[in-house]
C-alpha cells in the first residue's frame, strides 16, 4: 500500500529551455524558459501523466486544492497513481518574462505571448524533455482553462480528457474591456513611463488591485460580507486596503500586463491549421465542434470574469461535454476551490469524471 504524504508537498521544480522559440507574433526569443513542477512518478508506460497549466500569475503550487494527501484523502488527483505536471505561464516572473529577459526583449520589448504560444512551449516540454507521448488529462482553472481548451483544439488526440473550471475557450468583448481597464490603471501612473519604469509604479499597481477586486467575487458575496473569516480583514475598509496594497505582492507591472494581453487575445477559433486539424479562420464554433475528447466544463454560476452565459454558449458546440456549473457565490474564485463547499463540489465531480 502506498503511503501518502501528510500534506501535498511542493512539487519538484524544473526548468525547460527552448532555443530560438518563435512566437505567434513572429518574434524569436533566443531562450524561452518554462518553469515547471512534478508530483509523483511517471510510470514505465509513460501513460499516467496529467497536465495542470497555471492560471494568471500563478506558480507551481497553484493546484494544491486538487492533490490528494494523508491530510486530504478526499481530493481528486492522487500523486501515488498519476504523474502531475504543473507549468508556469510566460510572464509570471519565473518563466520567461519582461522582468527577467535580457535585451533586446527586456521590459516592454518582450513579445506578447498568446495562449497558443504557452501551449506550444509546454507541448515541446512534454514531448522533448519528459518523453510523454500522451496525457491522461489536461485540467485547468481560469487561464489554465483557456489552455485546456487550446490543447483540445491544437492537439486533439494528445489527451484523453480535459477539464475547465472558471474559464472559457475565447475571451469575448466584455472580458477584453475589463482587462483593458486593469491595464489602463497601471499605465496611468506617470512612473510607469510606457513600461520603462526604474521604480515600481506603485499607484498604478494599487489602482490595478482595486479594479481587479471589483470583479473577483459576486455582488452577493460582498452584500453578505462573505469576506469575514477569510483573513482579508476584519472590516470592509481593511479588505479594500488589502486588495489595494497586497493583491499580487511584488508583481512586476510589465509582467502583469503581458499576461493580461495573452488573456485578452485568447481565441481557439484563431487556431491555424495543424498536423491533425484544419485551421478555423476565427470561427470559434467550428473550433469547439472539432474537440474530440470528453470535456468537463465547470463555470462558476457567479463568475464576472467568465460569465456563465459565455460558457453555456460554448458548451452548445462541444460534442462530448459535461456541463456542470459550480453553485457558488464566490465568483471567479469558486473555480479554484476558494472555500470548502466549492472544493468538495469540484473534487467530487472531477473524481467521477476521471474514473475509468
Rg measurement, Å = 20 Å
Strand order of the largest sheet: 1-2-4-3-5-6-7-8
Number of helices: 10
The succession of helices and strands, N to C, reads EEEEHEHEHHHHHHEHEH
Query: Main beta sheet: strand number and arrangement?
Result: 8 strands, mixed
**What's the CATH first level of the largest domain?**
Alpha Beta
What overall form do the CA principal axes indicate?
Answer: globular
Helix content: 25-40%
Strand residue percentage: 15-25%
Count of folded domains: 2
List the uncertain runs.
Answer: 1-6
Strand segment tally: 8
What is the residue-averaged pLDDT?
95
CATH superfamily of the largest domain: Alpha/Beta hydrolase fold, catalytic domain
Class based on secondary structure composition and strand pairing: alpha/beta
Question: Under CATH, the topology of the largest domain is which?
Answer: Rossmann fold
Q: Judging by the overall fold, what is the CATH architecture of the largest domain?
A: 3-Layer(aba) Sandwich
Cα separation of the termini: 20 Å
Question: Any key phrases for this structure?
Answer:
10 helices, 8 strands, 8-stranded mixed beta sheet, Rossmann fold, 356 residues, alpha/beta, 32% helix, 2 domains, disordered N terminus, Rna Polymerase Sigma Factor, Chain: A
Describe this structure as you would to a colleague.
46% of the residues are buried. The protein is of the alpha/beta class and 356 residues long. The chain is globular. It starts with 11 loop residues before the first strand and ends with a helix. The longest helix is centred in the middle third of the chain and has 15 residues, at 115-129. Mean pLDDT is 95; it is low at 1-6. α2 links the parallel β5 (135-141) and β6. It has helices at 115-129, 143-154, 173-187, 202-216, 219-223, 236-246, 253-264, 284-289, 308-315, 340-354; strands at 12-22, 28-39, 49-53, 83-87, 135-141, 159-165, 295-298, 321-323. It has an eight-stranded mixed β-sheet, sandwiched between helices. It has two domains: 12-172 and 266-354, Rossmann fold (3-Layer(aba) Sandwich); 176-259, Rna Polymerase Sigma Factor, Chain: A, CATH 1.10.1740.
Amino acid at each position: 500500500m502506498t503511503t501518502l504524504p501528510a500534506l501535498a508537498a511542493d512539487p519538484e521544480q524544473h526548468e525547460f529551455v527552448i532555443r530560438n522559440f518563435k512566437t505567434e507574433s513572429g518574434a524569436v526569443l533566443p531562450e524561452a524558459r518554462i518553469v515547471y513542477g512534478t508530483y509523483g512518478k511517471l510510470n514505465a508506460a509513460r501513460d499516467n501523466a496529467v497536465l495542470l497549466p497555471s492560471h494568471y500569475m500563478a506558480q507551481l503550487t497553484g493546484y494544491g486544492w486538487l492533490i490528494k494527501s494523508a491530510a486530504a484523502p478526499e481530493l481528486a488527483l492522487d500523486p501515488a497513481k498519476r504523474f502531475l505536471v504543473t507549468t508556469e505561464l510566460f510572464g509570471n516572473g519565473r518563466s520567461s518574462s519582461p522582468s527577467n529577459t535580457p535585451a533586446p526583449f527586456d521590459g516592454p520589448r518582450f513579445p506578447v505571448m498568446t495562449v497558443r504560444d504557452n501551449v506550444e512551449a509546454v507541448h515541446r516540454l512534454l514531448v522533448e524533455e519528459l518523453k510523454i507521448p500522451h496525457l491522461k488529462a489536461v485540467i485547468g482553472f481560469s487561464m489554465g482553462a483557456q489552455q485546456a481548451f487550446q490543447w483540445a483544439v491544437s492537439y486533439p488526440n494528445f489527451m484523453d480528457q480535459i477539464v475547465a473550471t472558471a474559464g472559457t475557450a475565447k475571451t469575448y468583448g466584455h472580458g477584453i474591456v475589463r482587462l483593458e481597464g486593469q491595464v489602463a490603471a497601471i499605465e496611468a501612473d506617470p512612473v510607469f513611463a510606457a513600461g520603462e519604469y526604474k521604480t515600481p509604479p506603485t499607484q498604478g499597481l494599487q489602482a490595478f488591485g482595486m479594479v481587479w477586486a471589483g470583479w473577483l467575487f459576486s455582488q452577493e458575496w460582498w452584500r453578505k460580507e462573505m469576506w469575514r473569516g477569510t483573513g482579508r480583514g476584519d472590516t470592509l475598509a481593511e479588505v479594500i486596503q488589502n486588495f489595494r496594497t497586497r493583491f499580487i505582492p511584488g508583481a512586476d507591472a510589465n509582467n502583469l500586463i503581458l499576461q493580461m494581453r495573452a488573456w485578452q487575445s485568447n481565441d481557439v477559433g484563431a487556431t491555424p491549421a495543424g498536423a491533425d486539424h484544419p485551421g478555423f479562420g476565427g470561427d470559434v464554433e467550428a473550433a469547439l465542434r472539432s474537440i474530440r475528447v470528453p470535456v468537463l466544463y465547470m463555470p462558476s454560476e457567479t463568475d464576472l470574469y467568465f460569465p456563465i452565459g459565455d460558457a453555456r454558449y460554448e458548451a452548445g458546440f462541444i460534442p462530448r461535454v459535461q456541463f456542470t456549473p459550480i453553485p457558488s457565490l464566490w465568483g471567479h474564485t469558486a473555480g479554484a476551490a476558494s472555500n470548502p463547499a466549492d472544493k468538495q463540489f469540484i473534487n467530487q465531480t472531477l473524481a467521477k469524471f476521471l474514473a475509468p
